Amino acid sequence: MTQDPYEILGVSRDASADDVKKAYRKLARQLHPDVNPDPDTQERFKDVSRAYEVLSDPQKRAAYDRGGDAFSQGFGGAGQGFSFTDIMDAFFGGGAAAGGASRGPRSRARRGQDALVRLDVALADAAFGVTRDLKVDTALTCEACHGEGTAPGTSPIACETCHGQGEVAVVQRSFLGEIRTLRPCAACRGYGSIIPDPCRECSGDGRVRSRRTLTVKIPAGVDHGTRVQLAGQGEVGPGGGPAGDLYVEIHVEPHPTFTRHGNDLHTTVSLPMTAAALGTQLTLPLLEADLASSAETPDGEKPVTTYDLEVRPGTQSGSEQVKRGFGVPSLRGGRGDLVVSIKVDTPTRLDPRQEELLRELAAIRGEESPDGQNEAPTRGMFGRLRDAFQG
Predict the structure, then answer these.
(1) Which residue positions form the known binding site?
(2) What is the rounded distance in angstroms from the CA atom of residue 284 to the CA atom of residue 271?
(3) Which H/E stretch holds residue 283?
(4) In sequence order, what are the beta bridge partners of 227?
(5) Strand pairing of 264-272 and 338-345?
(6) Is 47:1 a contact under the CB 8 Å cutoff?
(7) How far apart are the first and last CA of the chain?
């Protein structure tokens, strides 16, 4: 068996560090005991690992190129042993490529978390949009240290345990010899540096909690539970890292006369029995937000604040009328409808003259002793549409 590490790995003497690593990965995939348990193959795998230990170390490689004995530099288990991390890289690729953490010290700066706040708005404001000032309590960059976490005039120093690498080697014995694995340094928690004099304002975290006021523009058409995203307005990350996002969750307060179903508005109008029987013309107010909204009207015209409702003679209680385009603006354009339900009020108290007139009317109509009849429940417009689609 040749003792030349270049020949063992099958690379030339002027091969780059990347070429050496590629050759080792290729052989490790073929010869690893988990793939090929043959005893001869295991011995060859040990030789390949030892050869890579020499050629991957610039000092050992330079010593061998000057005529030194490669095996005395670490072959045969006398040195530090080969890196278990390199074996894992051979099978699964580099740390970052395989989804693991990249080697070397990790940054103190990390992205902050997203924040969620609740905003109560009136139905009109949710339907037609509003701009509100919102007070939020989040982590902000420390002004004393500008996110560095160090006291003024000081700076982090390199960790003496890992010498600024952020990780330390741990050697363990196995049937393959000594296996060296890399673990985050416990002294510096993997940062590669230590803050000897932390900032007093933020205790070295680089951020402090503070209350601030944001101006939030709520678009027209949002509904209960809608979340408005404010990019970069969430929690500032540790070490002065970038801020997360702020989500404003809309909670719509009940309205005394209007309710919302999708982009449609629903309301109920009460009429006297006589008005329902004879018919009438009503002028009723729209949702209050239209008072300040002139965008829906042509230039030069006043905003529409009311709508006309024509009640035909003989209108029944529970009937509905639909006013097209008087509902809630959609986030994707267009606008819903206003659905008006008619409620006919029957008088509960009559004076003698009123009672006399009603009895005369009943006599004229032949309704003094009416025969009651059972009928199917009255269906609203949407119920009738649903029945029509269902056949």
Answers:
(1) 142, 145, 159, 162, 185, 188, 199, 202
(2) 13
(3) strand 280-285
(4) 249
(5) parallel
(6) yes
(7) 87
Cβ-count burial of 12 within 10 angstroms (0-12 exposed, 13-18 middle, 19+ buried)? exposed
Which parts are annotated binding residues for Zn(2+)? 142, 145, 159, 162, 185, 188, 199, 202
Confidence (pLDDT) at 182: 82
353: CB partners within 8 A, 6+ apart? none
DSSP state of 292: G
Structure tokens at 36: 């090929």
CA pair distance 189, 167, nearest whole angstrom: 9
Q: Which of 27, 82, 28 is nearest to 53 (CA)?
A: 82
Is there a contact between 72 and 85 (Cβ–Cβ < 8 Å)?
no
CA–CA distance, 279 with 327 (Å, rounded to integer): 25
Domains and CATH numbers, the chain: 1-67 (1.10.287.110), 115-156+195-252 (2.60.260.20), 258-366 (2.60.260.20)
Residues 6+ apart with CB under 8 A from 25: 89, 90
Backbone φ, ψ for residue 48 (5° rounding): -65, -40
- State which residues of the chain have pLDDT below 50: 1-2, 73-82, 90-102, 290-301
The token duo for 158 is 């390199």
pTM of the full structure: 0.61
pLDDT value of position 68: 61
Helix, strand or coil, per DSSP, at residue 49: helix
Residue 65 and residue 57: Cα distance in Å, rounded? 12
Share of the chain above pLDDT 90, in %: 45
